[in-house]
């Protein structure tokens, strides 16, 4: 692979990035310097460098349907900016509902709710129209909640991952979990003893956009602390839970069911990508679906082993698919630093943006 393009603008480590869905080649990056940088791949230099504050920025996202609006979090605060002016910005809102440091924020596809996951394990659901706290999701995680995403095909669906090794699916209208997958259970450790020594903390999750579902299916990608990546079918997991609940109701008090805490290996279709398939040998820090080419065809993962993996998983998630998946790893990119975050752009080239542990953002071309 050719040398990556280098994007300069940050004065400290770049922590996260996000790409425009509607303006190909436009990328926003954030860093420990409290700045957000806007890049247009058609230009050499950063188009705008915005000082949001003095604290490191941990996450950012565009408002779906109106990418002039961007949400940025640092510390325990979420800020909303209007970037409509090409060379200036205006603070629209500031939310201070989280009590501890926020790790990730996400907007739902209708731009009606924003979720923020923090170190306490709580997830705040914010009403973006009324500008108020809608619900607090609590008691799903017993440790840091590292990641959160809305489920686009479920109007009230949210999925979260935490450093308690749990993946939690929520009905946020009711504020309660509807499914908990525990990757810390012995049967979830995977086949590799080398990976067993690291906890299967959930560091990152991703769900496909609504227009990717024909290619990807109703799945969630889970990046784990032991280097493994799991692709689980959300609807299969929930259907299994409903089936178990029905069985329990018929069995009455003699049921031996353990409730909704289960393992995806026994509950539905699941793809387990570990080092035996060419996967990561250290914690996975970021996961994403590809926006380039056939949207959702590839899964992109980055890790603390200084590598980015491009997986072609779609054909293995088809109903009835069987046989070897030895060629599921489509591409491997070796880096010189650990990956903090990555995103993809809807362009034919310069379509993979990587924030590593330096202040320079790298851009690769993947096909």
TrEMBL record:
PROSITE patterns: WD_REPEATS_1, WD_REPEATS_2, WD_REPEATS_REGION. It comes from the Eukaryota. Residues 243-265 are annotated as: Disordered. Keywords: Repeat, WD repeat. SUPFAM superfamilies: WD40 repeat-like. WD repeats lie at residues 138-180, 277-312. InterPro entries: WD40/YVTN_repeat-like_dom_sf, WD40_repeat_CS, WD40_repeat_dom_sf, WD40_rpt. The keyword Manganese does not apply. PANTHER family: TRANSDUCIN/WD40 REPEAT-LIKE SUPERFAMILY PROTEIN, TRANSDUCIN_WD40 REPEAT-LIKE SUPERFAMILY PROTEIN. This is Anaphase-promoting complex subunit 4 WD40 domain-containing protein. It comes from Hevea brasiliensis.
């Amino acid at each position: 692979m050719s040398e990556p393009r280098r994007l300069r603008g940050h004065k400290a480590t770049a922590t996260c990035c996000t790409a425009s869905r509607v303006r190909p080649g436009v990328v926003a990056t954030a860093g420990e310097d409290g700045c957000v940088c806007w890049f247009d791949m058609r230009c050499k230099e950063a188009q705008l460098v915005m000082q949001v504050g003095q604290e490191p920025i941990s996450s950012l996202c565009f408002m779906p349907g109106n990418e002039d609006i961007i949400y940025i979090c640092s510390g325990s605060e979420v800020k909303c900016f209007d970037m409509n002016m090409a060379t200036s910005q205006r603070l629209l809102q500031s939310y201070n509902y989280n009590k501890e440091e926020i790790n990730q924020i996400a907007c739902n596809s209708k731009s009606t709710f924003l979720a923020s996951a923090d170190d306490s394990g709580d997830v705040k659901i914010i009403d973006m129209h009324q500008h108020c706290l809608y619900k607090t999701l609590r008691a799903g995680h017993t440790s840091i909640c590292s990641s959160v995403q809305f489920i686009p095909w479920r109007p009230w669906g949210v999925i979260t991952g935490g450093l308690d090794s749990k993946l939690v699916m929520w009905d946020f209208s009711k504020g309660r979990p509807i499914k908990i997958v525990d990757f810390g259970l012995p049967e979830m450790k995977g086949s590799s003893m080398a990976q067993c020594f690291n906890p299967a903390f959930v560091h990152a999750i991703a769900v496909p956009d609504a227009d990717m579902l024909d290619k990807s299916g109703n799945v969630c990608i889970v990046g784990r602390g032991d280097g493994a990546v799991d692709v689980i079918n959300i609807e299969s997991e929930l259907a299994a839970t409903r089936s178990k609940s029905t069985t329990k109701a018929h069995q009455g008090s003699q049921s031996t069911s353990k409730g909704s805490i289960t393992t995806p290996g026994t509950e539905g279709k699941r793809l387990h990508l570990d080092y035996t398939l060419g996967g990561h040998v250290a914690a996975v820090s970021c996961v994403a679906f590809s926006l380039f080419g056939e949207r959702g065809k590839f899964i992109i993962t980055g890790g603390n082993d200084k590598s980015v993996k491009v997986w072609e998983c779609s054909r293995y998630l088809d109903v009835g698919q069987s046989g070897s998946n030895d060629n599921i790893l489509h591409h491997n990119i070796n880096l010189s630093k650990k990956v903090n975050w990555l995103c993809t752009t809807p362009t034919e080239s310069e379509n993979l943006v990587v924030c590593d542990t330096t202040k320079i953002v790298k851009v690769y071309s993947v096909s």
